[in-house]
Amino acid sequence: MSDTRTALVLGASGGIGSEVTHRLLARGWQVRALHRTGAEGADDRGVLRIRGDALVADDVARAAQGACLLVHAVNPPGYRDWDTTVLPMLDHTIAAAVAQRARIVLPGTVYNFGPDAFPALTEDAPQHPTTRKGAIRVQMEQRLRDSVDRGARVLIVRAGDFFGPHTGNSWFAQGLVQPGRPVRMVFDPAWRGVGHQWAYLPDVAETMVRLLDREADLPPFARFHVGGHWDPDGTRMVTTVRDAVQAATGRRPWVLPFPWTLVRALGPVVPLCRELAEMRYLWQTPVRLDETALRRALGEVPHTPWEEAVTATLRGLGCLDA
Predict the structure, then answer these.
(1) Of 26, 110, 247, 288, which is most buried, counting CB atoms within 10 Å of its CB?
(2) Rounded distance between C-alpha atoms, residue 189 and residue 177, angstroms
(3) Residue 1 pLDDT
(4) What does the CA dihedral 245, 246, 251, 257 come to, rounded to 10 degrees?
(5) 157 three-class SS
(6) Per-position DSSP letters for 28-65, written without gaps between them
(7) Rounded mean pLDDT of 140-162?
(8) What's the mean pLDDT when you consider all of the chain?
(9) Main-chain phi, psi angles of 155, to 5 degrees
């Protein structure tokens, strides 16, 4: 990478974007962030805020001038307008990266895969999704692969369902608990006996940055899977949440089944419910990411213990009262 080590983070105020920004700054990177609102200039962390919109190609190109890294961590809020906004935003990131000969970092998902690849997913597993969102994710990665021929470089780090102190747009914060409120009940979307893949955002962000520290060893198109926090039978996450709440507050919350029937019924009028219902299959069959290649590249993979990670998440979401 160039000596200036300047990064542009798209989605810097979101969960993974904010975590990656924090770690880039700690390693001496100059970090820029594209924001649709607010004043331009350096914030109290030293991040240079630039006014612009990821849906406007010229805004992204202007913000990326001189950058050797573009972190594409931007998503439509509340899963709205996925089919019309996700690919154009990525195209603008790709165009800017090609112009700067920069590397793009994309947080990958398991949505790309279908039953023919389950249950253990390696980086080269076939991508034959069965959902609308999965098909879009496959297109995103294909466009990224094609961009390498035009001079960009790509790093895709794939992980399971995010949780973490700053994770608002996630199953944890939108399905299991209610951010900003004491936890009186925990909703459990899992099927008993079916494993589920979780990923603690600070661990994922640290993994990304450690891979970037090895830029010279990365191929132009690099993909890695993060094993994260594997819930072997679908009970560990809700049990850990319940126990963490009880340890912090003395109050033991109820664990209730997730209201799948209601979510499906609201799907036609509530975009979030439609998207949650579409991903139900990931709770009905075990899907586990194989991180063998990541361990080969890094040696030691960042991993925060379950109890510590869940407690930090609940505290960060404002769910643990005094």
Answers:
(1) 110
(2) 11
(3) 43
(4) 60
(5) strand
(6) T-EEEEEESSS--EE-TTS-EEEE--TT-HHHHHHHTT
(7) 98
(8) 93
(9) -130, 115
Cis peptide before 119 (omega within 30 of 0): yes
Q: Is 81 left (phi over 0), alpha (psi -120 to 50) or beta?
A: left
Is the predicted pLDDT of residue 43 greater than 80, yes or no?
yes
154 CA to centre of own chain: 16
Which amino acid belongs to residue 141? E
Beta bridge pairs of residue 198: 161, 229
Token couple for 244: 């963490």
Structure tokens at 321: 């009262």
Q: Where are the alpha helices (DSSP H) in 153-291?
A: 171, 201-212, 236-249, 260-266, 271-278, 281-284
Q: Per DSSP, what are the bridge partners of residue 33?
A: 9, 49
Structure tokens at 86: 């996700």
pLDDT at 78: 58
Does residue 169 or residue 134 have the better pLDDT? 134
CA 180 to chain CA mean position, Å: 21
Whether 54 contacts 92, CB under 8 Å: yes
Distance CA 297, CA 124 (A): 16
Q: Token pair of 90, please?
A: 């990525």
Token pair recorded at residue 177: 């608990």
* Contact criterion met (CB below 8 Å) for 190 and 175: no
Burial of 167 (0-12, 13-18, 19+ CB in 10 A): buried
In whole angstroms, what separates CA 265 from the centre of its chain?
27
Distance CA 243, CA 223 (A): 35
- CA–CA distance from 80 to each of 36, 75, 76, 169, 172 (Å)? 17, 9, 6, 12, 19
Inform me whether the pLDDT recorded for 277 exceeds 50: yes
Taking CA 80 as the corner, what is the angle to CA 278 and CA 96, rounded to the nearest 5 degrees?
Answer: 110
